[in-house]
Inverse folding.
């Protein structure tokens, strides 16, 4: 009997949910992958890693289509049209790239005010209408920026996160509201442009609500910690 050493790599894997088999492997990153997003219009996707690179891929090829070398931990996201992508660097600045000429570098860079030294960006997202950029952090703050000028519109706060968790936040499909998980298992809801907190939802989560996703077409939402909650509007709200 021979023992087999378990090898853990930072290769991205493409899994078929139909038969639970890996269709393709995407090697290249040398440290943990901390960001991954599919293009909304084709088979292109972005990955960001602690090796301080953002890589551009196509599902049809295991070879990296492009690489951007950065100076710190990245977060990355496509805009709704799939033509522009944003990269957050060192939790200090947002760089915007044109997908068709990303090798020429960012076409604009927005510095972002940093209130706390321990604040680290955990995610970045465009609003569905492409007008706003939302930055999630590992503290009780979510930044909302103007996607064209980079001006800070507001800071969303009130949710609990004193453990430095990467709690996910998301826009509603109409771009009017932001929902975020909380360390205590709740889900908080704000108006995106005014920053006014509207309500706190209880999904019965026993731990931190790390994942929040809104259906892009229908009035349904999912949140999760160690359990999963599916949300529908009540008849009184319709």
């Amino acid at each position: 009997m021979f023992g087999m050493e378990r090898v853990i790599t930072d290769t991205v894997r493409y899994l078929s949910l139909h038969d639970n088999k890996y269709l393709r492997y995407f090697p290249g990153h040398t440290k943990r992958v901390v960001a991954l997003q599919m293009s909304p219009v084709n088979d292109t996707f972005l990955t960001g890693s602690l090796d301080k690179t953002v890589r551009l891929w196509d599902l049809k090829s295991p070879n990296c289509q492009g690489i951007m070398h950065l100076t710190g931990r990245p977060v990355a996201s496509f805009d709704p049209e799939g033509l522009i992508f944003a990269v957050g660097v060192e939790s200090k600045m947002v760089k915007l790239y044109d997908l068709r000429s990303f090798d020429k570098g960012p076409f604009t860079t927005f510095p972002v005010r940093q209130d706390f030294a321990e604040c680290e960006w955990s995610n970045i997202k465009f609003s569905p209408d492409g007008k706003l950029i939302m930055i999630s952090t590992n503290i009780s703050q979510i930044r909302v920026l103007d996607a064209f000028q980079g001006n800070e519109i507001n800071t969303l706060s009130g949710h609990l996160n004193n453990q430095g968790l990467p709690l996910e936040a998301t826009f509603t499909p109409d771009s009017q509201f932001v929902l975020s998980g909380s360390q205590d298992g709740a889900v908080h809801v704000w108006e995106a442009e005014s920053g006014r907190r509207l309500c706190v939802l209880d999904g019965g989560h026993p731990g931190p609500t790390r994942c929040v996703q809104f259906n892009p077409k229908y009035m349904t939402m999912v949140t999760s910690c160690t359990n999963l909650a599916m949300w529908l509007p009540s008849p009184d709200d319709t």
